[in-house]
Amino acid sequence: MLSPYGLHIIESCLTCKLRADRTFCDLSTAALQAFEGIKHAISYPEGAVLFIEGQTPRGIFVLCQGQVKLSFCARDGKTLILKIVEPGEVLGLSATLSGKPYELTAETIDPCQVSFVKRENFLRFLKENPDACFKVAEQLSNKYDNACHEVRSLGLSHSAGQKLAKLLLEWSSRHAESKKVEPRVRLALTHDEIAQMIGTSRETVTRLFANLKKRQIVQWDGSTLLIRNKAALKALASNG
Amino acid sequence: MLSPYGLHIIESCLTCKLRADRTFCDLSTAALQAFEGIKHAISYPEGAVLFIEGQTPRGIFVLCQGQVKLSFCARDGKTLILKIVEPGEVLGLSATLSGKPYELTAETIDPCQVSFVKRENFLRFLKENPDACFKVAEQLSNKYDNACHEVRSLGLSHSAGQKLAKLLLEWSSRHAESKKVEPRVRLALTHDEIAQMIGTSRETVTRLFANLKKRQIVQWDGSTLLIRNKAALKALASNG
DNA sequence: CTTGGATTGTGATGCGCGTCACAGGGTCGA
DNA sequence: TCGACCCTGTGACGCGCATCACAATCCAAG
Lengths: 240, 240
Description:
Chain A is an alpha+beta fold. Helix content of chain A is 41%, strand content 22%. Chain A has eight helices and eleven strands. Chain A has helices at 29-38, 93-98, 119-128, 130-156, 160-175, 191-198, 202-214, 230-237; strands at residues 40-44, 49-51, 59-65, 68-73, 79-85, 90-91, 105-108, 112-118, 184-186, 218-221, 224-227. Chain A has a four-stranded antiparallel beta sheet. Chain A is globular, with a radius of gyration of 19 Å. In chain A, 40% of the residues are buried. Chain A binds a DNA duplex through helix 7.
């Protein structure tokens, strides 16, 4: 079945084949059926905003397909990207649980399919399904761990170059097509967005990449990045 | 009863009078008894290390009394303090749940009383006590929220002065003795530690304080800080 | 009271990088 | 095919702050 934005919609969680790979979705049969009863499958185009930091939480969004950008935005327009979320992660979880405002903004960067659950339904669901509650704790652990890494990177790095090196290494270990000595990373982000991920300016990113290229450490191949000298990159990233 | 380090030890969670005020500890009777059966009450002197980032998780530490410093440490010795933990918070929770290494280091800055629970016991306890599991999720929400604030502050601030202003305002809203126009904050931290909280150098903190004092925005009174012009401080902190 | 160690206060210096400004390319729609 | 728009590349300039190097205090312990 095709949705408005060209997605192949997964109709039901009960028959979803991707479920086993996903931390949260792999629930007991009973919990899964309860979840199926309260969730709404929604499709979003690229650039849609799921929620904005500061809003009172309406509920959670389980990302089924597509990618979502999580970011903080300052009043002067400056933006900081916390991470790009992959399918399987639950968004708005922390705020929905605590009732405090969403702490960041979630915006799709692809066409996305999402399972939305209203706050009161979700809280009831958790009370009635202990195993789901445990999964939620696991999800939150991962989120916390992730945020801690960002704090480390932002707070302990000595230079923008160091932060960029760390980011590239992280990508190569997460998304690389192979575990080879020279990993390739598909990269759909602009220099501006990369700058927002490491808290620096666009020009600096451009200059850093130019430098890395000159020193034969990385190389562009269309929209994929080839890391030619992982050791050198590690040296740049080290300490912190 | 007095412990080695001059603490008034709370013998049992079942009779602990502070329980109701604390997010995690306020469990159902059944859960509380189960918890009582697996916890170990431990006392630490000032400067004791509960766990170090990178260690495989041994279990959780519920802070009953005292204060604990959570920090990241880079290989070059540079340190970043994430927060000072107050009683009631559960430490090492995320790592214990996920099995991943502790993401930061926890060190007492007071004599502390702690309830320690071994990892396997704690996980079993959670499986058998759904309400505790929910409390854990709440705790993790708070931790995540907290980490997000730190990311915002580190990543979106334009200057060290801005970060310091934010920190002082946060303290004044959390620890101030009164809600008055000129809040007082007890402050046991050195300039060096404050620098480590906002990711800057000690000298910068000294200079910033000198500046604030000259402009009559803050004022020292022994070990308490008096905020004389909260509006000005807010102006300095704004944006971000 | 004295001494030694931690804490605070200040000047000088230099580099990183944010910011402004503008010049190519690449893409898409009219 | 042309213009509008977004992305990338590069130079110039200047501020913020890390760093080094001491001096001035403060405090606890002998």
